[in-house]
Amino acid sequence: MDDVPEGETRYLRTADLIDSGLSARQIRAEVGAGSLIRLREGVFVRADCATACADAVRVRGRLTCVSELRRRGVFVRDKHDHHVHIERTSARLPPVPRGWRVHRRTLARTPDPRAMSVDVFDALLDAVRCQDPRAAVATLDSALHRGLLRTDELDEFFGALPRRYRRLRGLLDSRSESGPETLVRLMLRSLGCSFDLQVSIVGTGRVDIVVDGWLIVECDSREFHSDWASQKEDRRRDLAAAKLGYTTIRFVAEDIMWRPDVVLAALRGLVGQRARIGSVAVAG
Known about the structure:
By secondary structure, the chain is of the alpha+beta class. It has two domains: 117 residues, no CATH class; 98 residues, Endonuclease, Chain A (3-Layer(aba) Sandwich), CATH 3.40.960.10. The chain contains twelve helices and ten strands. A hairpin with a 3-residue loop joins strand 7 and strand 8. Helix 6 crosses helix 8.
């Protein structure tokens, strides 16, 4: 498994194991001990191999789309457990478990013959098709932010998609540090708000989004805000921002992703109230 690109996993053939110094008897012993897993005749992986990748190889496919991106730490919103790519020319395949999504598109990047997943470029192409437009933008923002998709690849990327997806390009912003942050940004855009991302405020630190110069929007996840110490720190930062005239609203990632109507209504109410107060002041 030497010289394997970062993030890529490859399976092993019997010949690979023998070349590494194992005898047929030792291979059987390692399978019996669980340090090697036999996926199908003559195909093995180490015990620490990602389960989703191993499952894809069992059906003679490769992990792709949101499944592969989730494994690489890219934000995705799709709930399906397994997306696998199977070559169009593949025949006599084992049955694919119910609920899996099979992709048979011709790949833009040819993977190593023993790769257990497609190139991240192809996984992103599949994910744009599989998700709704807002989730697709959040996924692409995440990939750009993590350096898994480069800005100089965007011409090629959108050229490989049907024309209807090209409008998404103008919505991308690699400054978004999380998928929920992108989703909120798109909501604010739909409301016609002006905003900036990752703003540093004296005494408060860096905040996710500042809207119209007065409203701070923070997108909180369990990963960084679950313990009481973190929550106390958040509240103290909010107090420091209030001293400077800012209002802070915090949304949890779960609501942003699965109850967007509630989040949008809250944003609309805050922005609308500020606009009404401003109108009254001007009239007075």
